[in-house]
Amino acid sequence: MPASRSASPYADLGRPPLRESALRRAFELTPGLWRDIRVVEETGSTNADVLAAATAGAPEGLVLVAERQTAGRGRLDRSWVAPARSGLTFSVLLRPAGVPASNRGWLPLLAGVAVADVLRRVAEVDAYLKWPNDVIIGDRKVAGLLAEAVPGRASDLASAHSTGDAVVVGIGVNVSMRPSELPSPTATSLAIEGAATTDRDPVLRAILREFSRRYVAWRDSGGGAGAGGIRAAYAERCLTLGQKVSVALPGGRRLEGEAIAVDLLGRLVIRTDDGDRSIGAGDVIHVRSSGS
């Protein structure tokens, strides 16, 4: 570990470091949601760090970016690691106090729409969504998201920064990872897909701006499925809809059928032989027919 920390971040010219001062200036010039942007060389998990900051009362708008994570977490507590500066790994703190807790399941879906749209526009790749929170190119994952709520306490309810209204959204995008560095055979990166750019700085700025635009519109419209047009936007970009799927559910159960919709709470609706079922969590596999 000491050797990696002492090495210059400019040693790999294909993976230059992000500059916190430049990011801060960029968003100070265009005031909005993001009020505190921090870049750290290394941490265990940006989500864990931002969750701790939320519990301590940090206001909405904190962004924490790590050049390297040593204990990154994905859905279902899966570990997630990547070479330093080979991707974008960051978490943001949101406090949608006026949005019912039942509607906050839209936050990772909203973030997914923002990431997919930016990758299409800035990196010029055909990015789509796989329910609930994967961004894919073809059938390979290029980015993932993890949203976590901060548990509140009764004594927090009168506080201006109640921990109970806080949600942390973590985003990881594979940018310059080479085939040998991918975490799984089902992953890919912008570099592998021939993206128009693998410069992390403009991609990060664009994601933060698009996320902010969509989040503020959604939050200020009440945070429902139709707020800010998020349900329609997600459905338009989600390749899971219309697919035959097999879903591994918590507890070892499995559900198979056709994914037909995303309901008002952001859950996936699956048409099975026994009727329609809405699921809020599970690992989804797109099942291809033998003729496809």
What's the assembly state of these chains?
single chain
Radius of gyration over all CA atoms, rounded: 19 Å
> What is the percentage of strand-forming residues?
25-35%
* Biggest sheet statistics: 7 strands, mixed
Helix content: 10-25%
Decide which structural class fits the backbone. alpha+beta
| Distance, first to last CA | 48 Å
CATH topology of the largest domain: BirA Bifunctional Protein, domain 2
Count of all domains: 2
Shape: globular
Order of helices and strands: HHEHEEEEHEEEEHHEEEEE
Low-confidence stretches: 153-161
Number of strands: 14
CATH superfamily of the largest domain: Bira Bifunctional Protein, Domain 2
State the name of the first-level CATH class of the largest domain. Alpha Beta
**Counting H and I runs of at least 4 residues, what is the number of helices?**
6
Structural write-up:
With 292 residues, this protein is α+β, with helices and mostly antiparallel strands. It folds into two domains: 2-237, 2-Layer Sandwich (BirA Bifunctional Protein, domain 2), CATH 3.30.930; 244-287, SH3 type barrels (Roll). It has six helices and 14 strands. The strands form three sheets. It has a seven-stranded mixed sheet, sandwiched between helices. Strands 13-12-11-10-14 form a five-stranded antiparallel sheet, with no helix packed on it. A two-stranded antiparallel ribbon has the order 3-4. The longest helix has 21 residues, at 200-220.
